[in-house]
UniProtKB/TrEMBL annotation:
Belongs to the LOG family. Cytokinin-activating enzyme working in the direct activation pathway. Phosphoribohydrolase that converts inactive cytokinin nucleotides to the biologically active free-base forms. This is Cytokinin riboside 5'-monophosphate phosphoribohydrolase. The keyword Nucleotide-binding does not apply. GO terms for biological process: cytokinin biosynthetic process.
Amino acid sequence: MEEKLAKSRFKRVCVFCGSSTGKRDCYRDAAIELGQELVSRRLDLVYGGGSIGLMGLISQAVHGGGGHVLGIIPRTLMSKELTGETVGEVKPVANMHQRKAEMARNSDCFIALPGGYGTLEELLEVITWAQLGIHDKPLWMMASSSHLSAIFSFLHQTPKN
């Protein structure tokens, strides 16, 4: 395992996810399990900086397991998405566009967990950047519910049309 980790080109994983936990336990479980998996593989977490919802759960799982956490959050969202104690390093930025740019700049790959419109927008932006040749970083999407099937279908069919 040590040899495999040393050869990995991934050191920092950007995770897009919701500032809400959603209504299904599987979303919360997925965020915690992914955080634990990042720690077990010695991968740093780069995320949207919030301490609430799925963002809070994954950051707590990584930080609690001894992993490095970098949260990037627009100043306008700090009072809304940062409640209580923050974990890891928090980098305030001017706006949502800068948040996405910094998250991309500071990561080697992307994982999208369930989320709302913000998560979808982050996901579509990095897909667009890849299509435009701005980055060539891999992206994984976690399909933990049927509501994502329409999005997967759209993303799969769009390049063909």
